[in-house]
Prior knowledge:
Layout (H helix, E strand, L loop, with lengths): L10 E4 L5 E3 L11 E7 L5 E7 L5 H7 L10 H18 L4 E2 L9 E7 H5 L3 H6 L8 H11 L2 H4 L8 H10 L4 E6 L6 E4 L12 E2 L12 E8 L2 E3 L4 E3 L3 H10 L2 E7 H20 L2 E2 L8 E4 L2 E4 L5 E2 L14 H4 L6 H15 L3 E3 L3 E8 L2 E7 L4 E3 L9 H14 L11 H14 L5 E3 L6 E8 L3 H8 L5 E9 L8 H8 L1
Parallel strand pairs: 1-23, 2-23, 4-24
Antiparallel strand pairs: 1-13, 3-4, 5-6, 6-7, 7-8, 8-9, 10-11, 10-12, 10-13, 13-22, 14-17, 15-16, 18-21, 19-20, 23-24
Helix pairs in contact: 9-11, 9-13, 12-13
Amino acid sequence: MSDTNITIxxxxxxxxxxxxxxxxxxxLLEQPDACVQVGTAPDGLPLVLRVRRSASIVExxxxxxxxxxxxxxxxEARKLLLDLNKRMQLERRSLGIAARGPASTAPHYLSMQxxxxxxxxxxxxxxxxxxxxxLLPEDRAALAGGVDDLAARTSCGVLKSxxxxxxxTQQLDLRQHLAIPLDDGPVQVVRRRDQRSVDVSEGRPxxxxxxxxxPSAMFHTYRREEGLIHHxxxxxxxxxxxxxxxxxxxxxxxxxxxxxxxxLAAIAEVARALTSLHQEGxxxxxxxxxxILLTAQGALPHDSLDVPVGTISAxxxxxxxxPEQVIAREVSPATDVFALAQLVVQVLEAAVFGDxxxxxxxxxxxxxxxxxxxxxxxxxxDPTLIPFDDSAIAAWRGFLRRCLALDASKRVQTSxxxxxxxxxxxxxxxxxxxRAVSGMAGRLTRHAEGExxxxxxxxxxxxxxxxxxxEMQDSYSHLHRMPWRVVFGLAA
Length: 492
């Protein structure tokens, strides 16, 4: 596959007549609705969060009493309703505002939406897909149906008590939220306990992804003129901020892409980053595209389970789990090598096949789960997808077969050795073609202007006045959908 016939997945660009106004975070204390900056998007544009907390109870009450407008009410009822609505608006200004916690220096705004809901999938998920290449279509259908809960994520009967199960549930809890300090400090990711208190020391800094450091990262834009789409001439290197912003100002849609070779280099970076963890005697245990971030410092693994080498892993993700995790055997650095090899399989769009062995494993509470493993996995490289010659196919196939072996002792034993061999094979047998990044979370708005943070916003936007930003939504609007009886009860 050449670089020119890649299928771009477009993100439409929103052109608003009124520029989006970005204000100082402290304004969240003064008004229910505001748009504040939380960081920088993977393309270098400002990343802003639109907070929506305002809601009027006037219209629901008018409908409840069959009144067309406020003037249809008596003066006394009208005054009561407007006073109550004002009280509601004042109350809603405090939604999401957390008091100072033990380790915080200023109030924080806690997002209503979880971090995955706001940001969507990681870049690597958008490039390679989130599901393991070992899963068959029926497996993925079952996961989509809700099977991938704690039971499906735990491996075998290694949970010996209810307390262990509770602790593991908390460890695997993905309901993480943004904690945005209103004094313009660094944004944190926290597990929200309630809306009134948060200990930021229990959170972690928000680590944002960045594609501009990837040498092959390109942007692709198009314009629609007289019903026809023109996009061939609107592309360039994503790291060229001036060219990118100039293209965005005239485009109707945008897409990003990376070369397969740079994706393999990113996997090698992840493998080398795991070396320090392995030297500490720990295994990541849950390596997958959702737990890898492409940052300005390179590709980094995160959300490690930190399983001690020589112990049994109580958790993981279906498909990405190494066989020893599935059948409750001791883990080693080769456990992470198994997942790293699957990432390479995704980049090569290969298919893992072979005879299948079925295991029935306990998952606690007297329940069992059927797991299927390949005792001697083989790898098929489709020449119609990537035009490899026979020597390249043999090299890549042999490498992946060893790294996916059922017996951990037969795999490449360390992540550093995996990275070295991966880079060596890629140098001898380059992988042509590119992969497109699927749609981003939020929307790209062409015009925004700053208030309070205006100087910084203009610097990031690369021009004076209005500039493009990525906008995410955090809405509390559903909280006002209450029956009118509750409204009158509140008034009473």
